[in-house]
Design a protein that fits this description.
Blueprint: H1 8-12, E1 38-41, E2 47-50, E3 53-55, H2 60-71, E4 77-78, H3 79-87, H4 95-110, E5 115-118, E6 121-124, H5 132-148, H6 152-163, H7 177-203, H8 207-220, H9 225-237, H10 241-259, H11 265-275, H12 312-331, E7 336-341, H13 348-358, E8 367-371, H14 382-392, H15 404-415, E9 421-427, H16 430-433, E10 444-449, E11 460-463, H17 469-480, H18 482-487, H19 489-498, H20 503-514, H21 521-534, H22 540-554, H23 558-567, E12 575-576, H24 577-584, H25 588-600, E13 605-608, E14 611-613, H26 616-629, H27 634-658, H28 664-667, H29 681-690, H30 692-701, H31 708-717, H32 719-724, H33 728-745, H34 748-765, H35 768-785, H36 788-804, H37 808-824, H38 828-844, H39 848-865, H40 869-883, H41 887-903, H42 907-923, H43 927-940, H44 945-962, H45 966-983, H46 988-1000
Parallel strand pairs: 7-10, 7-11, 8-9, 9-10
Antiparallel strand pairs: 1-2, 2-3, 4-6, 5-6, 12-14, 13-14
Length: about 1000
Amino acid sequence: MDRGDRSSAQQAGVPEQDAPERVAPIPAGGGSGGDSGLRFSVLGPVRAWSEGQALPSGSPQQRAVLAALLMREGRMATAAELIDAIWGDEPPSQALAAVRTYASRLRKTLGAGALVSESGGYAIRTPPEALDLHIAQELVAEAEKARDGGDRAQARALTSKALGMWDGEALASVPGPYAESQRVRLEEWRLQLLEARLEMDLDAGHHAEAVSELTALTAAHPLRERLRELLMLALYRSGRQAEALAVYADTRRLLSDELGVDPRPELSRLQQRILQADEDLACPAPESHPGTTGFLKPAQLPASVPDFTGRASFVRELSEQLATSEGSLMAGSVMAVSALAGIGGVGKTTLAVHVAHAARPQFPDGQLYVDLQGAGHRSAEPEAVLGAFLRALGTADTAIPDTLDERAALYRSTLDGRRVLVLLDNARDAAQVRPLLPGTAGCAALVTSRIRMVDLAGAHLVDLDVMSPEEALQLFTRIVGEERVCAEREAALDVVAACGFLPLAIRIAASRLAARRTWTVSVLAAKLADERRRLDELQAGDLAVKATFELGYGQLEPAQARAFRLLGLADGPDISLAAAAAVLDLPPHESEDLLEALVDTSLVESAAPGRYRFHDLVRLYARACAERDEQPAEGQGAALSRLMDFYLATAAGVFALERPGERLVAHLATTTYEGLSFTERQEALDWLYAEANCLLACARQSLAGERLRRAVDLLWATKDLGESGANSKQYAAIVLAARDAAGTAGDPHAEGRARTALTNVHLVAGRYAEADEEARSARALAMRTGDTAPVYWADNDRGIIALNQGRHAEAEEHLIQAMAGSSADGNLPGEASALCNLSRLHEITGRTKSAVDYARQGIEVYARMGSTLRLANGHYALGVALTGTEPSEALKVLAKALHTFKQDRQRLWEGTTHYRIALAHLQDRRPGQAAQHAEQALVTGCIGGEKMRGNVLKVLGSALDALGQTDRARACWRESLSLYEQLGAAEAEDVRRLLAPLAAA
C-alpha cells in the first residue's frame, strides 16, 4: 500500500502549490450538529472535539474502538465485532472486558448521550455532519452533481474542498485489521478524488501546473496508470511532447518488469494520439452543456450608457452577426468576427458595448474586454493582453507561458468549446487583433478601430458613419431634456449639425447645456457657431469635434480648465487621484472636485474609483490647449516635474520599506513634491504594481531635459518591477531607452545609473556577457562622476557575473570590493548582499564552512535592519550553502525564502527557490519531491533565463532517473543539453556524461 505521497512541500515546511485548502473539521465555536457540539475526524489522526476543545482519545486500542464506531456512522457494533476490529483472529483473553473498559472511558469523555449501548452493542449517535468523513462524502456528491450539470468550476472547487478534509493518513496510528482495511479503502478513494480533480484541472487549462503535482504522485504511486495517463496529457499540452512519450516508455517497462503486463488500452491509445499530434489533444474537452463553464466566468464589459440612442440598423446587423456564433458551435464552423470602423468620436465603442451587453445571454461563459489603445502613441501589446485575459479566465500566473505564440495557443485552448464574447476596443490594426481572437466556433469577437480591417480574414466589416439628423437630435434630447429641446427644435438641429452629427461632440455639447440651466438651446447654437467660424481652417470631421471641445473647454471655470490642460499632459493609460493632485499641485480633495466636474462635462472619464482617463481625442485637444493657453509656458514642464517627483518619492519610500537601511534612497535625486507614504509592506507593494504602467510611462516621457536624471532614478528604485516577471519586458525596454537617451544627452551621471539598471535586466535574463559590458561601463562612468553607489553596485553585479561564468578568482575580487565600497558608504544591506554572494562563491569552490558563515553573517545584518525581502535573499544563500552537507536544514531555510518571495510577488525568485529546493531534496535522496519542485520551477520561471532553465531540466532529469523513469530523464537531459549548446555553456559536458550510459544501453 502506498502511503508516502505527502508532498515535499509539506515535509519541508514549504506551502504546496495548488494543494487543496485544509478544511478544519471542527469550527472553533462548535458549529451546528446537535446540542453536544461534538466533532470527530478520521481522515487523519482519530480525534474528538467538544465545543471546539480537543478531547482526550486515550490509548491506541481505545482510538480503534472510537474509529470502528465512527466508521459505522451511527449503526450498532457488537462487542464481538469490536474485538475482531481491534485484534482480529488473535484477541487477548480479557478482550471483552477491555472493550467494555474502552467504551466506558469513551462515554465519560464524550457524554452519555453520544455513546449508547443496546443489547450488548455500542453506537455513537451524533448528527452525520459531526464527522469529517461524512462532510467529505457530501462534498463529493455535490461535486458529482455539478460536474454532471456541466459546472466544472464548481465541481473542481468542491472536490478540492473534499480533499482538504484529509490531514495526513486516514486513521493514522490506529491498530487492528479493521483500521488497516479502512485505511486502504480511504486512501484509494482519496487517490480517485485526486485523479478526478486533476482531470478537471486539465479541462480548465491548468496543464502546466498539474505537471508538478502529477510528477510527485506518479513517483509515489508508480503503478497507477491513470496518473501516468494524466501526466502524459499534461506534458503534451505544455509543449513537452518528448517527455510525454518518455512517460509511456517508462510506464511500459515498469509494468513489464513488475507485473509482466502491458499498459492498459487507454494509455496506449494516448501514446498513439501524441505520436500523431492529434489536434483534439491540444485543448481541453468541451463542456457537456454549452450553458455552463468549467473556468472563471469573466464579465468585463464596461457599463453601457443609459442614453444610448439610434443606430438601430447597426445594432440589428451586429446582433445578427453575433447570433451566428450559436449556430457555428453546433455546425462546427468558424467563429463570428465583426470589425467596426469609423473616425474618432463617431461612437464605435458605445455601439459595440451596447450590442455586447444585449448579446450577453448568447455568451453565458463570459465576456472579455480590453482597450487596445490603438489610436495612441503606444498601443497595447498582444502578449500583455493575453496574459490579462488568461488571468481573467482563471489561469494562474505560474501557468501563463512567456511567449506570444504560447499564450495565444493556451488562450484558444482555454476558450475551446465555450461561448465567450471578446470585445477588442480601439485596435491599431489586424496584426494586433489576430492573436487575441478566440479562433473557435461558439465564441465571437467585436473589434473597433479607426481603420477598416480589410486584411482581417473572415471578419464582417461594418463602417460606422456619423448619426442621422434624427438620431443626433434624439441623443441631444435625451441628455438635455425633452422640454427644453421641443421649445427650440430648430436651434437644437443647428447644434447637432454644428457638432457634425458626431456622438462624442453631441454628448459634450449637450452635457454643457444640461449643466447650464440659464442657457437656452439658441445660446448654445450661437456659441458653437462662433467656435466653428474661429476654426474654419480645420477639416470637416475635426472641425465638428474640435469646435465642440472648444465650447466645453471655454465654459470651464479657470481652475477646471487648468486641470483639464495639465492632466492631459501625462502619458499612461489613466491617472490616480494622488498623482493628479501632484500634477495640479493641489490637495487631493480639491483635485477630486475638479476631476469630478470634468467627468460631469464628459471631458474626462472615471475609469474606476479614484482613477481617471481621457478619450484619446480629448487628450490630444487638452495638450493643444496647454500649448496655447498655459501661461507661463513653463507650467507644463512644472506639472510633469511634480508628477515625476510624486512617482519617484513614493517609489523611494516603497524601496526603503522593502529594504530598510539600503543607502540607495539617499543617493537618489532630490524631489520637491512629496509622495505617498506607507507603513504596511503589502500596501506599498499594491501601490507599486498597480501604478507600474503609469510610472513607467512617466519615466519614458521624461527621458529628455531636466527630468532625465529623476527618470533614471525612478527606474533604479523600481528594479523590483524588472525582477518580478510581471512587468519585466516593459521595464527592460524603458531602461534601454533611458541608457540611450542619457548617452545622447551627454549626461555620464544618468548614463552610469541607467547602465546599472540595465545590468540587472541582463542578469535576470541570464545574459551575462551583456550584463558584464554594462556593469563595466556603469562603474567607469560612476568613477568619473564621483557617483558612489553605482560603483559598489557594479562591483557586486560583476561578482555575480564572474561567478556564473566560472571566473571564480575575479568574482571574489569584485565581491570584496563591493563589500568595502558598501561599508565606506554606510550601506549595511549592501555589505550583506556581497556576503551572501561570497557565500555562493565559496559553496561552488568547495569552501562549505565559510560559505555557511558568510550567509549567516548576511542574514544577521538583514535581520538587524528589519529587512524582509533581502532577508529572503539571505535565507536563499544559506539554503544553497547547506544543501551539500545538511539538506534537511537547507530545506527549512529555503522554505522561509520561498514564503517571502511569494508574498512579495517576486515570481522569478520564487521559481529559482523551487529549483534550489529540488536540489536539496535530490541531495537528501528524495527524488519524488525533487522532481515536483523542479517542475514548479519550470512553470514559474527563474532568474537566469535559458541557462537556468537548462539547470532545472538537468536536475529534473536526475530526479526522474533516480525514480527509474529513465526515458523521461533522457528527454529532460536532451532538452537541457540543447539549451546549453545554444548558449555555449560549459555545463553541456556534464549533461553529455549523464546521457552517455543511457546511449550505450
